[in-house]
Amino acid sequence: MTAAPAFSFDRQRLAQLRAREDASFSARTQASQALREEARAYMPQGVPMAWMVSLNRFSPPFIQHAEGCGFTDVDGNHYLDFNVADLSMTMGYGPGPIVEAVSRQVRAGAQFLLPTADAIAVAKLLAERVGLPCWQFTLSASGANTEVIRIARHLTGREKIIVFDGHYHGHIDETLATLGEHGVTPEQLGLPKNSAAQTLILPFNDLPALEQALAHNDVALVLTEPALTNCTLVQPQAEFLQGVRRLTQQYGTLLCLDEAHTFQFAYGGLTAAWQLEADFVVLGKGLGSGIAFALYGMSDAIARHLERFTDSDIGPVGLATGGTLYASALAVTAARASLEQVLTQANFQRIEQLGQRLADGLQAIFNAQQLPWQAFQLGPRSGYCLSAALPVNGAEAQRSMDVEFIDCRRLYMANRGIWDGILSAGPQVSFAHSEADIDAYLGVARGFLTELFGLPV
Ligand SMILES: Cc1ncc(COP(=O)(O)O)c(C=O)c1O
Prior knowledge:
Elements: H1 11-28, H2 30-39, H3 51-54, E1 63-67, E2 70-73, E3 78-81, H4 84-87, H5 96-108, H6 118-130, E4 134-138, H7 141-156, E5 160-164, E6 177-180, E7 183-186, E8 199-202, H8 207-214, E9 219-224, H9 240-250, E10 254-258, H10 269-273, E11 280-283, E12 294-298, H11 300-308, H12 329-342, H13 345-368, E13 374-378, E14 381-385, H14 394-398, H15 403-414, E15 418-419, H16 435-453
The protein binds pyridoxal-5'-phosphate.
């Protein structure tokens, strides 16, 4: 079956709209631009982290404050946030129970490099919800994936890892890799030439390709999201993830499900919702509500291995894990409050319904404009699939990542109070959104697509 061609836009119309919206955004964000000019003397690009300017083709607003699912910039523009800081603020900005817990803990000591009892509560809750018995905490999902790869390599005595095309697993040399005509190569600058030498990149939803790669018996780990969320959205076909589990077990390879994003899609993550089995599950992003926190769950057998090879300052050298601020009392307290008071079954049901409302609304707009498009939906996540068939792998998903369309859409929406960040994502409902917020998004999206395609709705 040949993949559908990429959608063909009227590029001139897009460029005209873009120019108009750019002028408007620039006029509305004068104070932000002045701050950025001042900041250029002290920070490259005038931002504390360069990624903040590469997220968009327009200059970033500097933020004054935020509440619920919205933030306000220094010019006084208010935005409803449909990306919530790439899902790192999925509980919303300033959620009451977490603010209370964290305020208490700051006064009682934010960090000790020693455990607190809250950590037991977090690990226990996750064991119950996700199904893996033991947990280790880090600062970021990148850190968690890094440790998982190291443990898998040591445990299996193998070096290779497999990821799927369309993947993103964080700031890790081995996984910042891309598949091109010269095979797998480093994806960005500054990485060692051979950083991807042990990385295989395969198409998602292709069990024969996976079996062929595993059959050499030299792969330590398959690392994948249960559904790919970093190249729009690619869902697993029926039995694909069960097949991945079966094959990894058959060939002595460990399996890690990276749920840094998808843990926020369903209660207990997709691991629980889809009854998946894995050796490791990685969580991160929103759990700390803006306080750096992530963690990975593991099977009993792996936990025993980690115990046996724990690195020691005063004894034998062990596995390369850990860091000074990992598992700070503050982050652990935030995660406990999130799990106990926000990530409840009832709240997940609510955001799934809102996700459905968002996807149905987008689909209705596409239909009204006679676009052969589909609205993505998985729990609270939606998005723009620019073809009639949903993608089954990263290459197909890439066709919906039309930079000019996304850039113009986001600028138009930002000018009307909607923040829809991250090129590779779609709008996402957080725990702080309401029906009225979804309808506000849809109203602006309708305005944009109507202006672009011209059919009155
Ligand atoms: C699936 C997945 N894993 C890991 C990461 C890395 O997360 P962090 O940047 O918090 O380390 C990301 C970030 O987007 C992600 O989407």
